[in-house]
Design a protein that fits this description.
By secondary structure, the protein is an alpha/beta fold. The protein contains 10 helices and 16 strands. Strands 3-2-1-4-5-6-13 form a 7-stranded parallel sheet, with helices on both faces.
């Protein structure tokens, strides 16, 4: 296989690239470096600096290589930003991704894995959330992911593409392999575990948005999947078909995550309470049974492993350890 990973310089994409190379695959990466970095990529890969909306670069990649599979990770992911700047997300997550499909079709490359999101579901009808839940996004970001899912459905029907849609829940943790460590490094950071760890390490106050939800301790409940387990799932799904949830299959409240990070860091957080955010659902976590049964996928990391690896990454990022 020759596998093109779009967004391979990012957090999730970077781990997928490293795991693919370890599994013996020939990997090509395209990325812009606006939100990613190149230094964690293996030396054996071919890297193209560019945007998936640039058809000339895509044609160059497909001409110079015999691409058999695409793992499409390139996307903007900030739900709040998408709400205030939807055109940016329409352009990047839909319009530019269409260019990728056009080039794939013209070169006869019909295998694609798409990094989608649980945001396509909107308000869940059942918890844990299965693939049978209706997809009614309540955010611009979720809508952009759903539109591209639907486009892939037509590519499957009309052009016989092999399409795998993987709906991520909350990806967290750091991938550690010897001296290599890849962790979350968004700017601004938008995900709970790295925000909590940043607050702990820096001494800044962590703000809980609402403690009056209908949950056991009043805070929102989410599940978490380790980025390495997520990458392993992509490798298992190469060349297959289907739509699958990928999550932790068990929810943890915000207060539980705060307690865990304080235990790992052996210090107390400064915590304040703010009002709820309109977009926050009380409880959301995945049922990943379908993927487990079909591919024999068994996650290796529990919530403590996720948080501990993330803590190690943030210490290294802060130059507290080498």
């Amino acid at each position: 296989m020759q596998i093109l990973v779009t967004g391979g310089t990012g957090y999730v994409g970077g781990v997928i690239v490293n795991k693919l190379v370890k599994a013996g695959h020939d990997v090509i990466v395209i990325g812009t470096l606006r939100h990613g970095r190149k230094d964690h990529l293996p030396s054996s890969i071919k890297f193209y600096l560019g945007d998936i909306g640039d058809v000339d670069i895509l044609n160059e990649i497909f001409t110079q290589n015999k691409i058999t599979h695409v793992i499409h990770c390139a996307a903007y992911i900030n739900i709040g930003e998408a709400t205030v700047n939807p055109i940016k997300y329409f352009d990047n997550n839909i319009a530019k991704a269409i260019k990728l499909l056009q080039v794939m079709e013209s070169f006869g490359c019909k295998n694609i894995i798409f990094s989608s999101s649980c945001a396509t579901y909107g308000v869940p009808q059942t918890i844990p959330l299965t693939e049978s839940n209706p997809q009614i996004p309540i955010t611009v970001y979720g809508w952009t992911k759903l539109v591209f899912e639907q486009m892939l459905g037509y590519m499957e029907k009309i052009h016989d593409f092999n399409v795998v849609i993987l709906r991520y829940f909350n990806v967290a943790g750091a991938y550690i392999d010897g001296d290599l460590i890849i962790g979350e490094n968004h700017n601004p950071e938008i995900h709970l575990i790295p925000i909590v760890i940043n607050s702990l390490v820096s001494g800044n106050t962590f703000n809980i948005n609402g403690t009056d939800y209908d949950t056991d301790d009043g805070t929102c409940i989410r599940d978490y999947i380790h980025v390495e387990d997520l990458a392993d799932a992509h490798i298992l799904a190469l060349g297959k078909r289907g739509q699958f949830n990928l999550g932790g299959d068990r929810g943890y409240s915000i207060k539980e995550i705060l307690d865990l990070v304080q235990k790992i860091g052996q210090q107390k957080l400064n915590i304040s309470v703010r009002a709820r955010r309109i977009e926050d659902l009380p409880i959301l976590y995945a049922d990943s049974t379908k993927f487990k049964l079909e591919f024999g996928w068994k996650p290796k990391h529990d919530i403590e492993s996720i948080a501990t690896s993330a803590y190690k990454w943030h210490l290294k990022k802060q130059n507290i350890i080498k």
